[in-house]
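Morning, I've got a small favour to ask if you have a moment. I've dropped the whole record in just underneath, so have a look.
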Amino acid sequence: MRRPEARPALAGTRGASPPPPVSTPAFFPELRGMGSGRTLKFALCEVLQFAGLCAPLFVVMQRFAGVAAKVKASARPHGDGATAYWLIVASSIAYVTSTALLVWVPMKYMVFVKNKFLDGRRKWRPVALVYVILSTLPCFAFLVASSKVQLNNNMKHDAFTELPVSLVLFSLICVDLVERIRHCRLTGQANDGERDAHIPSSVLTHVEQVTPVAPAVPGQPGPAPQHNDGNPSGADGTAGDPGGPPSVSGLSSRSASTAAGRSSQCAHGGPPRSLCACDPRADVFVDSFMFWMDTVEMVRVAGLPGVYYSGWVFPVYIFSFLSCLRVVAMPQSPLLSSLGVALQDFPFFFVRVALVAFFGFVTPVLYLMKNLLVCLAFVYFNFMTRLRVFNTERMFF
């Protein structure tokens, strides 16, 4: 007997199956639940960086336009300074528009879309380099040009007090912060994968195994200290001496175990846990501002009327801009120490000595000693300790 064919269930009947869910197209990731937050964070970061690019240029060039209008009005009593003012303002708008369309947007496209275009961008930051060239350099140039224009016309109209520090360098710090924190999530607790090279973290990530040392028994030879390479001898080929100074690996193991003990103490409940709170996303804000403190102090000196209306404004702003180029390197790049000494501490020391000699204590002596000690420590511990006369370990063998 032939079985009757099953009829398809009509719409609205009890046995009707629900319609299949409509899948979101793959080319609209921002509509997904997981991608909407990332898209919002990406848009927020891009808006902040573009605002940091435009705001200093508009404000500095508008103030420079005011100075140019005052100079033209004083040179020609019946002249109109509004023409020069609006011409400079229009030039600033044209400059920002052209650089944004011809340089900033194509560079962003190459960085985020064409990943193979900049294979080595994990060692340096092209966005920071382009920002320093397009925004910080023109702002410093117009500040120096304004000083030169006022000196040539025997005027002291505007010294741009606090403007370079509060706006130009703060925008640079904000761009640096966005570049360092955009790779981690902004909500919830930080994951272990977010502790990358962009965020400095004091959390222990690698703990070496410490070999226990048994007490020496009379009449029995003690165990030889073991190293990572399995050689019982010391690093220089001599036999290990239990009574000698600890090696570098021993010191690192001891510091690692101490850090592990501190973290285990903070793992318990109670008030100590709230006092031991530490998040790398919060530490990056402190690290970014501390990174620029020396440059901020140098630029602040240039805003003083005695220094601004003199020829010393040129070396101050020139070396301050060179110190801003340190932002191109990654926060944990091995070249950052050398760049800091070559572009900041070494030239800042001589500039501060000259400023103190000509103008008095316009800059604190603390920063002068900081530049001197950093240069001496860098040269001594990296070069002079390699000499035989400074190698104190060989004096006892």
Observations:
- Confidence is low (pLDDT under 50) at residues 8-13, 22-34, 200-207, 225-266.
- The CA atoms of residues 222 and 295 lie 56 Å apart.
